[in-house]
Amino acid sequence: MDKRLATDSITIKTAQILPPDTNAYGTLFGGKLMAYIDDVALIAAVRHSRHTCVTASTDSVDFLAPVKLGDFVILEAFVTSTHKTSMEVFVKALTESFETGKKNVCATAFLTFVALNEDDKPVPVPGVIPKTSQQLELYDSAPLRRKRRSEKRRQSIKMAKEFSGEIIKRKER
Ligand SMILES: CC(C)(COP(=O)(O)OP(=O)(O)OC[C@H]1O[C@@H](n2cnc3c(N)ncnc32)[C@H](O)[C@@H]1OP(=O)(O)O)[C@@H](O)C(=O)NCCC(=O)NCCS
Question: Which residues, 6+ apart, have CB-to-CB distance to 119 below 8 Å?
Answer without folding.
Answer: none
